[in-house]
Amino acid sequence: MNTSSLLKNGIVYITAKRYEFIHAAQAKKSLRLIEQTKGRTDPKLFKMCRDYSIDVFGNSKYAPWLKVYTAFNRNFKEGWIPDNYYRTIVIPKIQGDFGKISNLKFFTNTFFNTQNFPDLVYHINGKWLTVEGEILPIEKVARYLFNSNTKVLFKQDNSMQGLGIQVFEKETINLSTLMGLGNGVFQYFIEQHPFFSEYVEDSVATLRITTTVNSLGKPKVNDAYLRFGMKGESFVAAGSQLKVSVNSIGELSDLGYLNGWQAVKEHPNSKLGFGGKTVPTFNKATDLCMQLHQSYPQIDCIGWDVAIDKNNEVKILEWNGYHNDIKFSEATNGPCFIEQGWEKLWKA
């Protein structure tokens, strides 16, 4: 083996070990936070996690996330997918390069050909293109954006968890601002359904719907949960969001969870509870996500960020075909992917 190959293999090994260390630390922190409120977990359950990790996934390094799920539920369930196993083993095999396309906003309408995305203008390597493909001179971009909108959002390519998002009003955007933006998309601001504004009106609540397709391309909804922002924030940010599980008919769970897995019965700002509430037009949203996924079955699992507007219309804010998160779904409603056979992928 030559020096170049040795160096390449060394980099791969170090990167994998670093990723393993980061995930173990994240799982350890989550476990500590959960046990602060729920109490210590039975050691026998943790032994089951380790044994299951070795027997089913081939390595004990996947046990930490199984321990998180177990501590959260006070019970062990077969069929759970550890978050680090999903990211390192599952994603490359079921999403791969096709899934990475979701990081490039321009391709959204190319693939799905739908009016349900609120996209207005794409910025690609210095060129500004409308959804219809017309190239705009930079001097006309602001006029085009605010022709019928008072507020727009810019989402940068390869952005995740609310990072890379900027909100603009007509008076806050100029040529200098536009020239400083990277590749991405401008979207019009959604006027959300009053149901969500009752909780917090400053930001648009998003419904995360996770879908999968089977070997024949037939889609199904595996899980859904709501993400609320906080007062004074213009969009839902990963660092402060509140998540509430949603069942198969759109009913909210009695409890929501802040960062740190802290359970709450109501939104901290509005003091409005979650139990007994149902997401408006939930079935319409899930049906659309399944329809769109069926049109692009090359990716086995997609996370859709959905908003419901004031007219009960479903808007897809973005789709995540690569590195969509599953740990909250697995902890609260899992196992969610028991029919996918993902536990066998490490052997392939």
From TrEMBL:
Residues 183-335 form the Alpha-L-glutamate ligase-related protein ATP-grasp domain. InterPro entries: RimK-rel_E_lig_ATP-grasp. It comes from Maribacter orientalis. This is Sugar-transfer associated ATP-grasp.
